[in-house]
Write a structure and sequence with these properties.
Blueprint: H1 3-16, H2 22-37
Helix pairs in contact: 1-2
């Protein structure tokens, strides 16, 4: 699974999501897009504990 596939799936799911969950789903999509933009291809395998703030 790639970030791009996950983002596309989330966007398709958004079409069928209840209106009261759209903000949460938009947030998850934005997080996934930022991870992809920042070059984090495998977020589940990435060690985020050493990131500088």
């Amino acid at each position: 699974m790639t970030n791009e596939k996950a983002i596309e799936a989330l966007k398709h799911i958004k079409t069928y999501t209840a209106a009261d969950l759209l903000d949460e789903l938009d947030y998850v999509i934005k997080v996934m897009e930022k991870l992809e933009k920042d070059g984090i291809k495998e977020p589940l395998e990435t060690d985020f504990t050493n990131l500088n703030k």
